[in-house]
Amino acid sequence: MIPTLDPAPTLDPSTDLSFTRTLAVPRALVWDCWTKPEHIPHFFIPAPNKVTAVDLDLRVGGRFNTTFDVDGNLMDNNGVYLEIVPQEKLVFTDAYSEGWKPAPEPFMTAILLLSDAPQGGTTYTAIARHRSPETAKTHKEMGFYDGWGTVVTQLETYAKGLMP
Questions:
Q1: Residue ranges covered by each domain of the chain
Q2: 27-35 and 144-162 helices cross at what angle (nearest 10)?
Q3: Where in this chain does the record put each Activator of Hsp90 ATPase homologue 1/2-like C-terminal domain (predicted)?
Q4: CATH number belonging to domain 17-162
Q5: What is the mean pLDDT of the chain?
Q6: CA distance 94 to 13
Q7: Facing residues of 18 across strands?
Q8: Quick check: helix, strand or coil at residue 160?
Q9: What would the pLDDT profile of 6-21 be if each residue is shown by its tens digit?
Q10: In CA terms, which of 24, 68, 138, 144 is 20 to 30 Å from 155?
Q11: For residue 48, is the peptide bond before it cis, meaning its omega torsion is within 30 degrees of 0?
Q12: Is the CB of residue 75 less than 8 Å from the CB of residue 66?
């Protein structure tokens, strides 16, 4: 039997940044937005910045590649999926690219946890796990909470527009 990762990882306050919000959209829709390439450009980077390319291969070891346009500068973000539990957990990192090629300057591993909210909607937890306290501090100073918070607000707004 292959062991699985802990579904709710223990956080290290020196290296992990995290927040939880309740979204007024169903969990299945949030999952679709995160796993289907046509949805990613609508929420994945705070506006007015844009996602200009998405290339997903939703399998463990599959690519999670995006390109951002930030103030006219194109930025490639290549990574791989580490764990996929449909509609519950999505883990990806930039520590590797497809084919398990180590990245020269990895930044973080993202963990998204989804569950049904008690009052309806989705309980959404985002975790950014870093290699060192210094990297976590840098990410926090770059605006992790505002930036990732904006992304989840954009995700919720976009997903509401997809509801029947």
A1: 17-162
A2: 110
A3: 25-159
A4: 3.30.530.20
A5: 94
A6: 21
A7: 127
A8: helix
A9: 557 899 999 999 999 9
A10: 138
A11: yes
A12: no
